Amino acid sequence: MTEHVSGATGEAVAQAFAQGDATLLIVDDDKPFLQRLARAMETRGFAVDTAESVEEAVVKARAKPPAFAVVDMRLGDGNGLDVISAIRDRRSDTRAVILTGYGNIATAVTAVKLGAVDYLSKPADADDIFAALTNTVGERAAPPENPMSADRVRWEHIQRVYEMCERNVSETARRLNMHRRTLQRILAKRAPR
After folding, report:
1. Which of 157-161, 180-184, 188-192 is predicted most confidently?
2. 108 CB contacts (<8 Å, ≥6 apart)?
3. What is the count of structural domains for the chain?
4. What are the entry keywords (predicted)?
5. In which domain, by residue range, is 83 found?
């Protein structure tokens, strides 16, 4: 089960697996992403449970606090930090990672104070999330082999805001402080590499 884990980075997971507790709660309101990540983590040996809202996640965390958690910061019905807090109330040794498309220093500090072991910007891939969950205390994750280009990160952010605005070009352009026609040209192009 721990064949994907190497050296010291796998100690936390190896110990959890040895104790028979590799439970992982993934909380995200982006259903396709949630399903892909759940499958990827199951192949890495985790016993995965999922939730799409703060309310659902808090109920699951209180009923059976997981050994590991991956929680999106912004959910349709609230803040992912509430989920981290609910998990910590029941189990102080849970290794939690916060995912967000809205990275900022203040939120990262709050997440770490509540007990998150790492804070990753979306879109993070399964390898990055796995590394963050399994790093030993104080160990830094290795930089990604093929990080997204700045153009791709910008494109991903525009797409996320566009979806949040229910595909309304005018509203998206207003929120991004961008000219509407410029936004239309960006949306018409393929995603950069």
Report:
1. 180-184
2. 98, 119
3. 2
4. DNA-binding, Phosphoprotein, Transcription, Transcription regulation, Two-component regulatory system
5. 7-134
